[in-house]
Amino acid sequence: MLNKNDCILSVINLCKSYSDHNDKINILSNINFSLYKSEVVAIIGSSGSGKSTLLHIIGLLDSPDSGSVIINGLDTANFSKSERDGIHNYNISFMYQFHHLLSEFNVLDNVALPVIIRNNSYEESRQLAKDLLDKLGLKGKEKKSPGELSGGERQRVALARSLITRPNCVIADEPTGNLDKKTSMLMFDYFLEMKNEYGTSFIMATHDLDLASMADRKMCLEYGNLSFI
Ligand SMILES: Nc1ncnc2c1ncn2[C@@H]1O[C@H](COP(=O)(O)OP(=O)(O)OP(=O)(O)O)[C@@H](O)[C@H]1O
Ligand SMILES: [Mg+2]
């Protein structure tokens, strides 16, 4: 039974459209749902159905046309930049569909940066980053620059970077898009480890139906509507 006190975030009557010349294209039409502590939720839906748009709005990286995003019981609509930064540093971690790694830093520092920013010691942060990279099968890649990695390796570095702060919630946009089955499972196992050990919640968009079927809840976004399946 889901407990209302364990609600990490909710979206209420969320709408988003884009204009295409003179047409208005509705991408999200009145979306409602809540994400709870320690659950893994998968969102499937065809390419262009609006999964990334929805995740960006939930992650406070984009604004809806109307509707609310409630995080930790607070309506985020009028959050200042520093309140949004606080959510990103301490509550919600976003893993982008297209990595956004920093090319001027090596792999180890890319992963360590979010904890260095929190004023942790440089050496401790790098050790945490190294341990996480080892777990995600990237031992020996620490000194490489992101440009020297394969797409799937970069994806795992981005994942490590989004997990290193042990956020309450990870929003992951196609986290296994570039990974083979075995590496996808390695990554999903680590999601489960974080869920069981720290109560982390995950909401992920994916085209991988096998992965989606392992989530606690599965939702489908089509024609602007989100339904539980
Ligand atoms: N900034 C924008 N301006 C106009 N249209 C946009 C913008 N961003 C997204 N769209 C449109 O919104 C729709 C949904 O895009 P979105 O990236 O959310 O889809 P998606 O479900 O994540 O697709 P994929 O599975 O390919 O990643 C697409 O038709 C896209 O062209
Ligand atoms: Mg997308």
Distance between the termini: 18 Å
Radius of gyration: 17 Å
Biggest sheet architecture: 6 strands, mixed
Do you know the CATH topology?
Rossmann fold
Q: Any idea what the CATH architecture is? A: 3-Layer(aba) Sandwich
Order the strands across the largest sheet as they lie in space: 6-7-8-3-9-10
Helix-and-strand structural type: alpha/beta
% residues in beta strands? 25-35%
Instruction: Just give the CATH class.
Output: Alpha Beta
Number of helices: 7
Enzyme class: hydrolase
InterPro entries: AAA+_ATPase (IPR003593), ABC_transporter-like_ATP-bd (IPR003439), ABC_transporter-like_CS (IPR017871), MacB-like_ATP-bd (IPR017911), P-loop_NTPase (IPR027417)
Keywords: ATP-binding, Cell membrane, Hydrolase, Lipoprotein, Membrane, Nucleotide-binding, Transport
Domain ABC transporter: 9-229
Quick structural gist:
The chain has 229 residues and is of the alpha/beta class. The protein is 34% helix and 28% strand.
Write a structural description:
With 229 residues, the protein is of the alpha/beta class. It has a single domain, classed as Rossmann fold (3-Layer(aba) Sandwich), CATH 3.40.50. The protein contains seven helices and ten strands. The protein has helices at residues 51-58, 81-90, 107-117, 122-135, 151-163, 181-198, 209-213; strands at residues 7-20, 23-36, 40-44, 66-71, 74-75, 92-95, 169-173, 201-205, 217-222, 225-228. Helix 3 packs across helix 4 (122-135) and helix 3 packs parallel to helix 5 (151-163). The radius of gyration is 17 Å and the shape is globular. The protein starts with 6 loop residues before the first strand and ends with a strand. The site of magnesium ion has 5 residues, from helix 1. It holds the Pfam family ABC_tran.
